[in-house]
Amino acid sequence: MSSTSTAATTAQAPPSVPLLRNWRFQTLCVGSGAALIGVYATDVAYPLIILALTGSPALAGVFGLVQAAASVLCTLPAGQLVDRHDRRRIQIAAESVRVAATASVALAFALHHVTFVQLLMVGALVGGAQPFVGAARMLTVRAVVEPEQLSAALTQDEVRVSTAELTGPPLGGLLYGIARILPFLLSSLGFVLSLTAAVAVRPAGASGAPRGGEHRGGMFAGVRALWQDATLRPVVVLLFAFNVAGVPLTLAAVYQLHRHSAPSWSIGLALAGSAVGGLIGAALVRPLHRRFRPGTLLLAASGWAALTVALLGLVSGPWQIGLVLLGTSLGSPAIMVLLDVLIFRQVPDGLRGRTIAATMSLMGLGVPLGSGLGGLLLQYLGGTGALLVLGSLLACATAWAAGQRGLRTAVWPAP
Question: Which fold has domain 24-202+217-408?
Fold first, then answer.
């Protein structure tokens, strides 16, 4: 093609819509942000109501384990479904499950008949629906955003997560202090708004219909692709360890503050420290990715997290705990965008759902383990002992990953 025709083609190409004016992407962000605020609000409410019903931090850990286990078990099937079927319909169905399950808790409060068994069932339903919502939404975002805007969109997504994490816990603690039903009404409303956004957005090309040979290999194709790569294997293992050590932090903070009779609003305020760290970390994504290679960045973030997890066991009071949680989450946005660049952007669309699901599943195995282990450690070692053990486990995983040549020498892929 001549330079003249190339210039003509370029001139005729429609300009990209600025990200802030992309109503499909922004609608998805508003809906999922509302759902996340409700999730973080009930992350405070569920442990508090279980402690009030049973007095046992171990049973609060069991709730987290059941919810996380359901999420992990459903992750690989979710990846297979979103690669083969209409992603929008999958998201609508999964959001409907989350609406119904959370609304049932609010109804039980209205009828004065909340039981631990019901809470476990709701945890399993909400946890099981999450991978379907998450995988379908991640692929829909790629269908409504221009490729050159994807990193900016994902960074905005991390801001959305951190904003929800900032507002959800204190709001959940405040509402729980007013009436125990209120956090669950808020969560139900958030899921309704996310469901409405999924119904409203109809992206072209987001159906996930099979294309050629990209759908060969079955449900475990993404797992095999990750595990055979010398760079990606230690990445996934290290992020698994991140979850083992990081998932119990909310329960540990709630447990420590509850033991010292801290009011529910101050517990929520302390947990918002993680969100502040995430917002600061989102602003650091671009400079960190420009300055450091992926392996160096991941190892540094992991070592820092190990230190701050252990430090959390040595402080007390809402402000100190909130400050340490802020430090713990500083590297999270850079790591999530790192995952997208290293993994999700390098595979064909027909395999992308399974690759996303495989990554989240392998990482997610640490969630039920961390929830169960965290509850047991809190039960038998107390807050300080539990957090020192978790920080030491993450430090050991970081040392192992630092010895993997594939991770140390990894470079950012070409655009």
Answer: Growth Hormone; Chain: A; (1.20.1250)
